[in-house]
Write a structure and sequence with these properties.
Layout: H1 21-30, H2 33-48, H3 52-69, H4 72-88, H5 92-109, H6 112-128, H7 132-149, H8 152-168, H9 172-189, H10 194-206, H11 210-227, H12 230-246, H13 250-266, H14 273-286, H15 290-308, H16 310-377
């Protein structure tokens, strides 16, 4: 079972609904400067779920141009997009690196929406690494910020992520509450999202209610196909494959799982492969195909170690320490500068006091000299 985690593809604008791909391509022909950076990043968002390779090309071009013209907001969005792309490919350490760079830029810009969105994305990495304490911290901060901004679409997704986290902690009642709130808010806004329905299906799956799980998965699949959201379609194919395997419907399960594995390769969404392979192995075992089950589990172990292994965790820890040290060095530099300024001000103050004292001494000496002169004349 694979959860639908909200990952913000791009935070500069929400124009995709109003600007289909052909319109964005036309805008790109004449766009210049930061407008071109913005359009390139929107094209990343437009292509990410259907053609990730093309999408990455657009956001790399955006980052190059944004760096050349010193477009900080464009740079932050580009780094965020690269984080999304690497996360989808299963390179979690690289993904986190780009998210943290993006967050640092948004912090300097004081861009609240950018900060909240990037924190939400960082939370997904910690959730995938099963560092639930850190994931909760980032998800709650992001949700509070989206609520303050009144951004309903991102509130829906942040509630979805909080639901996922509580589900991982086996707090199913609280998880279902978050998912239901997300679903109600999406219905109220007039725009249906597939993620809450998918995740409600996950709750029923974990409770062993396979019939209700399939009902929610199929509803979510219809919405995802309307959205042309290929990553969510992939997710749902994998979930349907797993639930049918658990229900003992081997042929149906295998058809869904084969489709999911094929799509993960087409989209280069390798992060989905471990769960798909694990479900396949289970399905083979249920059918007493032990040789196929064993071979699939060996393949699963290799893929899982590559994506979620200790080496990746170590790289993330090292990266965070390095970034933390950079921030500490900046703080020390700022403190040194402040101390130097204070020392300079103190020297100036001492010099001023010395000048005043010397001035007083000179005046007193002149007065005494004048008085003694008058006295001698008399």
């Amino acid at each position: 079972m694979k959860k639908c985690l909200f990952v913000s593809l791009f935070v500069v604008s929400n124009l995709l609904a109003a600007n289909p791909i052909d319109s964005l391509e036309n805008v790109l022909k004449t766009a210049k400067g930061d407008q071109k950076v913005k359009t390139l990043n929107e094209l990343f968002r437009a292509y990410m779920n259907s053609d990730p390779v093309k999408a990455i090309g657009y956001t790399c071009e955006a980052l190059t141009l944004a760096t050349e013209i010193d477009d900080k907001k464009g740079m932050a969005a580009s780094y965020n997009n690269l984080g999304v792309a690497y996360r989808s490919q299963g390179a979690l350490d690289k993904s986190l690196e780009y998210y943290l760079i993006s967050l640092r830029i948004y912090d300097k810009l004081k861009n609240k929406d950018g900060i909240a969105t990037t924190k939400s994305n960082i939370g997904t990495i910690y959730s995938m690494k099963k560092d639930y304490g850190q994931a909760m911290k980032y998800f709650e901060e992001a949700h509070a910020q989206f609520t303050e901004l009144g951004d309903q679409s991102k509130m829906i997704f942040s509630m979805n992520n909080l639901g996922n986290l509580h589900s991982d902690l086996q707090l199913f009642e609280q998880a279902l509450k978050y998912y239901s709130q997300a679903l109600q808010l999406s219905q109220k806004s007039g725009k249906m999202y597939s993620d809450p329905q998918n995740n409600i299906g996950n709750i029923y799956f974990r409770q062993g209610n396979y019939q209700r799980a399939v009902g929610y998965y199929e509803k979510a699949l219809v919405v995802a196909r309307k959205e042309e959201n290929q990553l969510t379609v992939l997710n749902l194919l994998a979930n349907l494959g797993e639930v049918y395997a658990r229900a003992g419907q081997g042929l149906k399960a295998q058809a869904y799982l084969d489709s999911a594995l094929l799509k993960s390769g087409q989209l280069q969404a390798f992060v989905y492969e471990p769960n798909i392979l694990k479900s396949m192995a289970y399905n083979y075992a249920k059918q007493n195909k032990m040789k196929e089950a064993y071979e699939t589990m060996v393949r699963y172990d290799g893929v899982k170690e590559k994506i979620f292994g200790e080496e990746s965790s170590r790289k993330i820890a090292q990266m965070e320490i390095a970034l933390d040290l950079q921030e500490r060095e900046k703080e020390l530099d700022a403190l040194k500068t402040k101390e130097e300024l204070n020392s300079m001000e103190l020297r100036h103050a001492r010099l001023a006091i010395t000048c005043i004292v010397l001035g007083v001494i000179v005046i007193v000496s002149l007065v005494n000299f004048y008085l003694s002169k008058r006295k001698s004349k008399k």
